[in-house]
Design goal:
With 243 residues, this protein is an alpha+beta fold. It has two domains: 117 residues, Archaeosine Trna-guanine Transglycosylase, Chain: A, domain 4 (Roll), CATH 2.30.130; 97 residues, Methane Monooxygenase Hydroxylase, Chain G, domain 1. Helices cover 37% and strands 33% of the residues. The chain has five helices and ten strands. The chain has a five-stranded mixed beta barrel. α2 packs parallel to α3 and α2 runs parallel beside α5. The longest helix is centred in the C-terminal third of the chain and has 33 residues. It is globular. The termini are far apart. The N terminus and C terminus are likely disordered.
Length: 243
């Protein structure tokens, strides 16, 4: 961990010395959003990322998973979003051709301060981006509002897919619940990135409450129209197609 001092302006034109803990972290830009606590399998085949993973294994250091903002996932350098999650390697399987299958787990969020181009792979000077307000009254209240919607969402999802879905006991701790819901929700990457970049637990849970409400409405509609669609598409002499 590298510490630097920066001068920053405050109200009234005064200045104060701020100490910011920075860490240079190897980056893996992907078309996926990694959350703390999330398990992610990866196939490593590009030489630059094989070099990066070998370094991380040898030095026992994490790397950062960041969602691609612009550019390709394979070949060239992609521009990443500024907030990502540090990933700890938990399993490495090596093939004879040098490729690897690895498993990682999300650890802590970070914010990119400065990109570094001194390696074959992208890296960055990053600052820890901790969640705030996880133990507040607002966070606890949002937990009570979100939990019933999760149970309803899973129940409706089971009815819509005609499968039996069982939900294990949900965590009580607000931050853990917030990330669990973020991992489970089927959303576009940009929406998941928005959740990851929110500063506090109450804000994340409130956004998830809104997203769950939207998904519940959609699932209810799908379930209510299933029988109608079956009647429109079937008949005693075969199947017809609605115009």
């Amino acid at each position: 961990m590298k510490k630097i001092h920066r001068r920053s302006a405050v109200d009234g034109g005064q200045h104060e010395s701020k100490q910011i803990d920075l860490m240079e972290l190897p980056l893996f830009p992907l078309n996926v959003v990694l959350f703390p606590g999330m398990v992610l399998p990866l196939h490593i085949f590009e030489p630059r990322y094989r070099e990066m993973i070998n370094r991380c294994v040898e030095e026992e250091i994490p790397f950062g998973v960041v969602l691609i903002k612009e550019g390709p996932e394979v070949g060239g350098f992609a521009k990443p979003h500024s907030v990502g999650t540090a990933a700890r390697i938990t399993k490495v399987e090596r093939a004879a051709d040098g490729t690897m299958n690895i498993s990682v787990v999300g650890m802590q969020r970070f914010r990119i301060v400065e990109l570094v181009h001194s390696h074959s792979y992208l890296s960055a000077k990053v600052a820890h981006f901790p969640l705030v307000n996880g133990a507040t009254k607002a966070a606890t209240e949002m937990v009570h509002r979100v939990r019933p919607k999760i149970y309803e969402y899973v129940t409706l999802l089971g009815k819509a897919s005609k499968t039996e879905l069982k939900l294990d006991r949900l965590p009580e701790e607000p931050a853990t619940l917030a990330f669990l819901v973020a991992i489970a929700l089927q959303l576009e990457n940009e929406q998941k990135q928005r959740l990851l970049a929110m500063p506090g637990v109450p804000e994340i849970l409130d956004r998830e409450r809104y997203l769950l409400s939207c998904e519940i409405l959609l699932l209810r509609y799908m379930i209510e129209t299933q029988d109608s669609l079956a009647e429109m598409s079937g008949g005693p002499t075969g199947y017809i197609f609605a115009n």
